Amino acid sequence: MTEPTTAATAMTDVDLRTILLDVGLDPDVDVAADATLEELGLDSLALLEVATRIEDRYGVRLDESSTPGLSPTALRQLVNSQRPA
């Protein structure tokens, strides 16, 4: 089990991959790819869970309508740019 991240800690690639795997991402998928979360096979329920986990861990509320169109890298950058100080 991973230890909760505090809002003062930036989201890393490993943190994001862990969240995505926890909500059903195929472990063989390369999250460094430019594909969107939707193209990587995450459905709307999985994306809602991703948004909830990010809000809980990092204090960043995501607009669920834009999340499917983001790549994992873009999502990580968005979360890190909006983290509370």
Short description:
With 85 residues, the protein is mostly helical.
Task: Please give a structural write-up.
By secondary structure, this protein is mostly helical. The protein has a domain at 9-63. Helices cover 42% and strands 0% of the residues. The chain has three helices and no strands. It has helices spanning 13-22, 44-58, 72-82. The longest helix is centred in the middle third of the chain and has 15 residues, at 44-58. Residues 63-85 are annotated as: Disordered. InterPro entries: ACP-like_sf, PP-bd_ACP, Ppantetheine_attach_site. It holds the Pfam family PP-binding. Keywords: Phosphopantetheine, Phosphoprotein. This is Carrier domain-containing protein.
Whole-angstrom Rg: 12 Å
Let me know the average pLDDT.
88
Give the fraction of residues assigned to helices: 40-55%
Q: Sketch the topology as an H/E string, one letter per element.
A: HHH
Number of helices: 3
Protein name: Carrier domain-containing protein
Region (Disordered): 63-85
Pfam family, one: PP-binding
InterPro entries: ACP-like_sf, PP-bd_ACP, Ppantetheine_attach_site
Descriptive labels:
42% helix; Carrier domain-containing protein; 0% strand; Ppantetheine_attach_site; single chain; mainly alpha
Secondary-structure blueprint of this entry?
Blueprint: H1 13-22, H2 44-58, H3 72-82
